[in-house]
Amino acid sequence: MKKTKLALGVTTALFAIAAATIAPEAAAHASTKAHKHAPKKAVQTVETHTSSFSHTSSSNAKVDALEAQLQSMQAEIRSLRAAQGRPVVDPDTAKVQELDQWMNSVKAEGTSKKGAKDNMVFFRGGYGHNNDQRGGTLDPTGTVGGLGGALPGAIGDRDAWYAGAGFDFNINDNLFGMMNNTEVLGELMFDYKQLGERKLNGINPALGAAVGIPGVNAQTATVNALTLAASPKIKFLKGSNFRPWLIPAGMEITVISPPSDAITVLNPGMMFGAGADYKIWKDIYAGADVRYHHSFDNVDGVNPDGITAGGYLGLGF
Prior knowledge:
Layout: H1 2-82, H2 91-115, E1 120-130, E2 143-144, E3 147-148, E4 159-172, E5 183-200, H3 205-210, E6 220-235, E7 242-257, E8 266-281, E9 284-295, E10 306-316
Antiparallel strand pairs: 1-4, 1-10, 2-3, 4-5, 5-6, 6-7, 7-8, 8-9, 9-10
């Protein structure tokens, strides 16, 4: 019994000593643990504060963006209100319309160029009159063997008819920049002009028989002339049906037949002219002109100076 009580006392004392030893260590451990866990709470607090600040900043940015969009919409509404009554043209639509207009203008220009026929071939005819008698051949005042007037005499014809043709070639459409709708053309033309009478050429048969030369040159000759001309032509009112024109000066060469007494046939000279034509149907034109022909000198007694006046029919090409 005593031994049991003694054992219990010893055990109780040991527990008391152990408790006294463990208690300070537990307290220290608890304090250290508290200190170790305290910074984590602070970090969590800072992190929570930072997250709240970041969320607040993001919200402010969204609000600013919405406010900017709202202001932009308000400005657009004000501009639309200011533009009421005016057609709203989409930039893409405007570009398409501009391209369409350009294409139409190019097509129209191409069609007009293709359809415009500024060149012309024309056929002309009319009346001609020389300033002087045709002249040439022998002098009718001479007599041989008492046969006065037996010689054929000088050609006295002055009136003639003519026929010819020519070409007009377009060179410029605005008189080289000096006048709009005024064409400059180059004209190449030829005329055949025939005087109204036929004359014996040289010694007639009566004179030949008188002097013992029977049948000398019994043929007759047609008194005519061929004119070749190259001239600049100025034509007004391009685009209209009625087109007046003028030739300030052109060069021409006249070939006479029969030849002069010196057997000369060529005579250079100048030509001046004016006229007008009218488009009667499609590319068919009718016109009239008057031209003056001037030579620099006579051809060994033959003077071809004179005037021609008549009409012509033209075909555009």
